Amino acid sequence: MKKTIANTTIEIGRGDIASQPDMQAIVNAANAQLLNGGGVAGAIHRAAGPGLEKECKPMGPIQPGEAVISGGHNLPNKYVIHCLGPVYGKDKPEDKLLADCYRNALQLADKKEIESIAFPAISTGIFGYPTKDAARVALETIINTIPGLKYLKTVRIVLFGREDFEIWKNALDE
Ligand code: ADP
Fold first, then answer.
1. Is 65:87 a contact under the CB 8 Å cutoff?
2. Which atom of ligand 1 is nearest to the CA of 131?
3. What is the pTM of this model?
4. Residue of minimum CA distance from atom 10 in ligand 1
5. Is the CB of 122 under 6 A from ligand 1?
6. Distance 165 CA to ligand 1 centre (A)
7. What are the b/e assignments for 139-172, b being 16+ CB within 10 Å?
8. Can you give the pLDDT of all 174 residues of the chain as single tens digits?
9. Mind listing the domains of the chain with CATH numbers?
């Protein structure tokens, strides 16, 4: 499933965020301390090796909506952009903070002249953000941010489960 906006293609795909070798950057659904963890952060830190945590630790803690960048270490990607999503029901307003994540990550990527970036569904795991609402906020933000970027050609959303994949596909269709 693909859609092109102002020369940038948005792709919705299924898979593991830590196995996207054709992307220059991947985004981590990080924790505030930028440490190894569960879900996306666990998969990324496992694949990157201990050097990632070592590089990230001094940059933490970060606030909900904030994004920071590191190297990819043993990952096939040059960069990892770490975003702290809002905890649903706690960090408010959730929709603004989630939009901040996607916008800040994209703008940071463009500053580094990154042409391809893959995102997981930030905040929709342990942080409890309903998938359909998160997909709408994320895609709206990506679509609105893209025209202001210079280098970005591909944005891929990588979904783990089949159901999540269908929800995001439908959201992009709308
Ligand atoms: P958060 O703490 O921001 O909610 P999680 O890592 O718990 O982040 O989950 C975010 C989303 O990523 C969830 O929908 C989860 O199913 C999905 N997910 C978990 N592991 C992976 C992975 N290896 N690759 C892509 N998506 C993943």
1. no
2. 14
3. 0.98
4. 125
5. yes
6. 12
7. bebbbebbeebeebebbbbbbbeeebbebbbebb
8. 899 988 999 999 999 999 999 999 999 999 999 999 999 999 999 999 999 999 999 999 999 999 999 999 999 999 999 999 999 999 999 999 999 999 999 999 999 999 999 999 999 999 999 999 999 999 999 999 999 999 999 999 999 999 999 999 999 998
9. 2-173 (3.40.220.10)
